[in-house]
Amino acid sequence: MFKNCRAFTLVELLVVIAIIGILVGIMAPALQAMRESARRTQCQSNLISIGLAMQSYHDRWSQFPMGTIADSGPIRNEPSGSHHNWLGRLTEFLDQPVIAANIDRSVSIYDEKNADVLALSFPGVRCPSDVGVVANASSYVGLHHPTAKPIEESDWGMFVLNQALNREDVLDGLSNTVFVSEKITTLGDLGWLSGTRATLRNTGGGIQTDLPEQVLEVTEVGTIGSRHPGGAHLLFGAGEVRFQTEMTDQRILEQLADRRDGQLPLQFMSIDQQRRQSVQ
Protein backbone atom coordinates (compact mmCIF):
# COMPACT_ATOMS: atom_id res chain seq x y z
CA MET A 1 0.00 0.00 0.00
CA PHE A 2 1.12 3.52 -0.78
CA LYS A 3 1.35 6.09 2.00
CA ASN A 4 -0.20 9.53 1.52
CA CYS A 5 2.62 12.10 0.86
CA ARG A 6 2.13 15.83 1.05
CA ALA A 7 3.73 17.84 -1.77
CA PHE A 8 3.29 20.88 -3.97
CA THR A 9 1.45 20.47 -7.19
CA LEU A 10 3.03 22.00 -10.28
CA VAL A 11 0.53 24.86 -10.22
CA GLU A 12 1.24 25.62 -6.56
CA LEU A 13 4.98 25.60 -7.21
CA LEU A 14 4.60 28.04 -10.09
CA VAL A 15 2.45 30.34 -7.95
CA VAL A 16 5.07 30.33 -5.15
CA ILE A 17 7.86 31.12 -7.64
CA ALA A 18 5.79 33.97 -9.09
CA ILE A 19 5.15 35.42 -5.62
CA ILE A 20 8.86 35.25 -4.76
CA GLY A 21 9.69 37.01 -8.03
CA ILE A 22 7.22 39.78 -7.27
CA LEU A 23 8.62 40.24 -3.76
CA VAL A 24 12.19 40.43 -5.09
CA GLY A 25 11.08 42.99 -7.67
CA ILE A 26 9.46 45.09 -4.94
CA MET A 27 12.44 44.83 -2.58
CA ALA A 28 15.20 45.54 -5.11
CA PRO A 29 14.54 49.30 -5.43
CA ALA A 30 14.27 49.59 -1.64
CA LEU A 31 17.61 47.83 -1.18
CA GLN A 32 19.21 50.07 -3.80
CA ALA A 33 17.82 53.15 -2.02
CA MET A 34 19.28 51.88 1.27
CA ARG A 35 22.69 51.40 -0.34
CA GLU A 36 22.62 54.90 -1.81
CA SER A 37 21.57 56.34 1.56
CA ALA A 38 24.61 54.66 3.14
CA ARG A 39 26.86 56.01 0.40
CA ARG A 40 25.49 59.53 0.91
CA THR A 41 26.13 59.26 4.65
CA GLN A 42 29.74 58.21 4.02
CA CYS A 43 30.19 61.03 1.51
CA GLN A 44 28.85 63.55 4.01
CA SER A 45 31.20 62.16 6.65
CA ASN A 46 34.17 62.64 4.29
CA LEU A 47 33.23 66.27 3.75
CA ILE A 48 32.80 66.88 7.48
CA SER A 49 36.34 65.57 8.01
CA ILE A 50 37.65 67.88 5.28
CA GLY A 51 35.85 70.82 6.87
CA LEU A 52 37.35 70.10 10.29
CA ALA A 53 40.81 69.72 8.74
CA MET A 54 40.39 73.06 7.01
CA GLN A 55 39.53 74.83 10.26
CA SER A 56 42.48 73.16 12.01
CA TYR A 57 44.76 74.33 9.22
CA HIS A 58 43.47 77.89 9.62
CA ASP A 59 43.91 77.73 13.39
CA ARG A 60 47.57 76.81 12.93
CA TRP A 61 48.53 79.02 9.99
CA SER A 62 45.89 81.83 10.22
CA GLN A 63 44.89 81.14 6.60
CA PHE A 64 43.25 78.51 4.46
CA PRO A 65 45.40 76.52 2.00
CA MET A 66 45.79 78.05 -1.44
CA GLY A 67 44.01 76.33 -4.28
CA THR A 68 47.06 75.56 -6.38
CA ILE A 69 50.60 76.72 -7.11
CA ALA A 70 52.05 77.63 -10.49
CA ASP A 71 54.40 80.16 -12.02
CA SER A 72 51.46 81.83 -13.73
CA GLY A 73 47.91 81.25 -14.88
CA PRO A 74 45.69 80.17 -16.35
CA ILE A 75 46.10 76.64 -15.06
CA ARG A 76 46.20 73.99 -17.77
CA ASN A 77 44.96 70.44 -17.26
CA GLU A 78 48.35 68.99 -18.04
CA PRO A 79 50.92 67.17 -15.83
CA SER A 80 53.36 70.05 -16.04
CA GLY A 81 54.20 72.67 -13.43
CA SER A 82 54.12 72.65 -9.63
CA HIS A 83 50.36 72.16 -9.11
CA HIS A 84 50.58 71.37 -5.39
CA ASN A 85 46.98 71.78 -4.24
CA TRP A 86 44.83 72.51 -1.21
CA LEU A 87 44.14 68.83 -0.44
CA GLY A 88 47.83 68.06 -0.12
CA ARG A 89 48.12 70.76 2.54
CA LEU A 90 45.32 69.14 4.55
CA THR A 91 46.71 65.60 4.70
CA GLU A 92 48.30 66.10 8.13
CA PHE A 93 44.99 67.40 9.50
CA LEU A 94 43.11 64.50 7.91
CA ASP A 95 45.13 62.22 10.21
CA GLN A 96 47.42 61.14 7.40
CA PRO A 97 50.89 62.15 8.70
CA VAL A 98 52.67 59.49 6.62
CA ILE A 99 51.16 60.78 3.39
CA ALA A 100 51.98 64.36 4.41
CA ALA A 101 55.59 63.43 5.13
CA ASN A 102 55.98 61.81 1.70
CA ILE A 103 54.85 64.87 -0.30
CA ASP A 104 57.93 66.69 -1.59
CA ARG A 105 56.88 70.29 -2.22
CA SER A 106 60.29 71.30 -3.54
CA VAL A 107 59.44 69.62 -6.85
CA SER A 108 56.35 69.28 -9.05
CA ILE A 109 53.53 67.07 -7.81
CA TYR A 110 54.11 65.08 -11.01
CA ASP A 111 57.80 64.53 -10.26
CA GLU A 112 59.04 60.99 -9.72
CA LYS A 113 59.58 61.81 -6.03
CA ASN A 114 55.82 62.33 -5.64
CA ALA A 115 54.69 59.50 -7.92
CA ASP A 116 53.75 57.13 -5.08
CA VAL A 117 51.59 59.60 -3.15
CA LEU A 118 49.91 60.91 -6.30
CA ALA A 119 49.02 57.35 -7.31
CA LEU A 120 47.34 56.57 -3.97
CA SER A 121 43.63 55.83 -3.99
CA PHE A 122 42.81 57.69 -0.77
CA PRO A 123 39.27 56.82 0.44
CA GLY A 124 39.04 60.02 2.49
CA VAL A 125 38.65 62.04 -0.72
CA ARG A 126 36.46 59.59 -2.62
CA CYS A 127 32.66 59.45 -2.60
CA PRO A 128 31.41 55.83 -2.66
CA SER A 129 28.92 56.74 -5.38
CA ASP A 130 31.62 58.21 -7.63
CA VAL A 131 32.68 55.05 -9.43
CA GLY A 132 34.87 56.79 -11.99
CA VAL A 133 37.56 55.05 -13.97
CA VAL A 134 40.43 57.06 -12.42
CA ALA A 135 41.46 55.20 -9.26
CA ASN A 136 43.50 58.05 -7.71
CA ALA A 137 40.94 60.78 -8.32
CA SER A 138 39.28 63.04 -5.75
CA SER A 139 35.49 63.34 -5.66
CA TYR A 140 35.82 66.67 -3.82
CA VAL A 141 36.84 69.98 -5.31
CA GLY A 142 37.53 73.45 -3.95
CA LEU A 143 35.59 76.25 -5.62
CA HIS A 144 37.79 78.77 -7.40
CA HIS A 145 35.11 80.99 -9.00
CA PRO A 146 31.33 81.33 -9.33
CA THR A 147 31.18 81.34 -13.15
CA ALA A 148 32.89 79.31 -15.85
CA LYS A 149 36.45 80.54 -16.41
CA PRO A 150 40.05 79.28 -16.20
CA ILE A 151 41.82 79.04 -12.83
CA GLU A 152 43.71 82.29 -12.18
CA GLU A 153 44.87 84.54 -9.35
CA SER A 154 41.96 86.97 -9.75
CA ASP A 155 39.22 84.42 -9.01
CA TRP A 156 36.46 85.07 -6.46
CA GLY A 157 36.15 81.65 -4.84
CA MET A 158 37.99 80.33 -1.81
CA PHE A 159 40.67 78.26 -3.54
CA VAL A 160 42.58 80.19 -6.16
CA LEU A 161 46.00 80.29 -7.76
CA ASN A 162 48.96 81.33 -5.56
CA GLN A 163 46.75 82.97 -2.91
CA ALA A 164 46.12 81.83 0.65
CA LEU A 165 42.93 83.46 1.97
CA ASN A 166 41.74 83.76 5.56
CA ARG A 167 38.42 84.21 7.34
CA GLU A 168 38.56 87.98 6.94
CA ASP A 169 38.60 87.56 3.16
CA VAL A 170 35.17 85.88 3.25
CA LEU A 171 33.10 89.06 3.18
CA ASP A 172 29.82 87.17 2.77
CA GLY A 173 30.37 85.13 5.93
CA LEU A 174 31.57 81.55 6.30
CA SER A 175 28.05 80.14 6.65
CA ASN A 176 27.02 81.73 3.32
CA THR A 177 30.05 80.66 1.28
CA VAL A 178 30.67 77.24 -0.24
CA PHE A 179 34.25 76.04 0.08
CA VAL A 180 34.09 72.49 -1.30
CA SER A 181 31.71 70.50 -3.45
CA GLU A 182 31.52 67.14 -5.15
CA LYS A 183 32.42 66.49 -8.76
CA ILE A 184 31.86 63.69 -11.24
CA THR A 185 35.16 62.03 -12.09
CA THR A 186 35.87 61.58 -15.80
CA LEU A 187 38.78 60.47 -17.95
CA GLY A 188 41.74 62.84 -17.99
CA ASP A 189 41.65 63.45 -14.22
CA LEU A 190 45.21 64.08 -13.02
CA GLY A 191 44.71 62.81 -9.47
CA TRP A 192 43.76 63.92 -5.98
CA LEU A 193 46.92 65.96 -5.38
CA SER A 194 46.84 67.80 -8.70
CA GLY A 195 45.89 71.48 -8.47
CA THR A 196 44.06 71.47 -11.79
CA ARG A 197 40.41 70.87 -12.60
CA ALA A 198 40.99 67.53 -10.84
CA THR A 199 40.49 69.33 -7.49
CA LEU A 200 39.24 72.80 -8.46
CA ARG A 201 35.91 73.65 -10.08
CA ASN A 202 33.40 76.48 -10.49
CA THR A 203 29.59 76.56 -10.46
CA GLY A 204 29.24 77.90 -13.99
CA GLY A 205 27.48 74.79 -15.27
CA GLY A 206 25.21 74.20 -12.30
CA ILE A 207 24.96 70.92 -10.42
CA GLN A 208 25.16 67.95 -12.77
CA THR A 209 24.24 64.37 -11.86
CA ASP A 210 24.41 62.80 -15.31
CA LEU A 211 27.58 64.05 -16.95
CA PRO A 212 28.57 62.41 -20.24
CA GLU A 213 32.23 62.12 -21.13
CA GLN A 214 33.33 65.51 -22.46
CA VAL A 215 36.33 66.75 -24.36
CA LEU A 216 37.38 69.99 -22.64
CA GLU A 217 40.04 72.45 -23.62
CA VAL A 218 43.12 72.32 -21.39
CA THR A 219 42.19 75.59 -19.63
CA GLU A 220 38.49 74.73 -19.17
CA VAL A 221 37.66 73.78 -15.60
CA GLY A 222 34.21 72.23 -15.52
CA THR A 223 31.36 72.37 -13.05
CA ILE A 224 30.31 70.61 -9.86
CA GLY A 225 28.06 67.58 -9.50
CA SER A 226 27.81 64.04 -8.20
CA ARG A 227 26.53 60.54 -8.90
CA HIS A 228 23.94 60.90 -6.14
CA PRO A 229 20.40 61.08 -7.53
CA GLY A 230 19.07 64.63 -7.53
CA GLY A 231 21.97 66.75 -6.35
CA ALA A 232 25.35 67.03 -4.63
CA HIS A 233 26.82 67.77 -1.21
CA LEU A 234 28.29 71.22 -0.55
CA LEU A 235 30.65 72.06 2.32
CA PHE A 236 30.25 75.59 3.68
CA GLY A 237 32.97 77.57 5.39
CA ALA A 238 31.34 77.28 8.80
CA GLY A 239 31.47 73.46 8.56
CA GLU A 240 27.88 72.74 7.48
CA VAL A 241 27.40 70.06 4.82
CA ARG A 242 24.25 70.58 2.78
CA PHE A 243 22.74 68.45 0.02
CA GLN A 244 21.87 70.91 -2.74
CA THR A 245 19.47 69.79 -5.47
CA GLU A 246 20.34 69.92 -9.16
CA MET A 247 17.35 72.26 -9.63
CA THR A 248 18.96 75.01 -7.52
CA ASP A 249 18.71 78.43 -9.15
CA GLN A 250 21.96 79.20 -10.95
CA ARG A 251 22.09 82.68 -9.40
CA ILE A 252 22.02 81.14 -5.92
CA LEU A 253 24.85 78.75 -6.77
CA GLU A 254 27.02 81.53 -8.13
CA GLN A 255 26.36 83.69 -5.09
CA LEU A 256 27.25 80.82 -2.74
CA ALA A 257 30.57 80.31 -4.55
CA ASP A 258 31.46 84.03 -4.47
CA ARG A 259 33.23 84.95 -1.23
CA ARG A 260 32.88 88.72 -1.68
CA ASP A 261 29.79 89.73 -3.65
CA GLY A 262 28.20 91.54 -0.66
CA GLN A 263 24.63 90.90 -1.81
CA LEU A 264 21.72 89.78 0.36
CA PRO A 265 21.61 85.96 0.34
CA LEU A 266 19.21 84.87 -2.39
CA GLN A 267 18.64 81.51 -0.69
CA PHE A 268 16.95 83.31 2.22
CA MET A 269 14.57 85.27 0.00
CA SER A 270 11.01 84.37 -0.88
CA ILE A 271 10.14 83.55 -4.49
CA ASP A 272 8.66 87.02 -4.97
CA GLN A 273 11.81 88.66 -3.58
CA GLN A 274 13.98 86.58 -5.90
CA ARG A 275 11.85 87.58 -8.87
CA ARG A 276 12.14 91.26 -7.99
CA GLN A 277 15.88 90.85 -7.54
CA SER A 278 16.22 89.29 -11.00
CA VAL A 279 14.39 92.25 -12.57
CA GLN A 280 16.69 94.82 -10.96
Automatic annotation (TrEMBL):
Superkingdom assignment: Bacteria
Keyword terms: Membrane, Transmembrane, Transmembrane helix
DUF1559 domain boundaries: 32-250
Database matches in Gene3D superfamilies: Glycoprotein, Type 4 Pilin
InterPro entries: DUF1559 (IPR011453), N_methyl_site (IPR012902), Pilin-like (IPR045584)
Extent of the signal sequence: none
The keyword Cytoplasm is annotated on this UniProt entry: no
Transmembrane segments: 7-31
Name of the molecule in the record: DUF1559 domain-containing protein
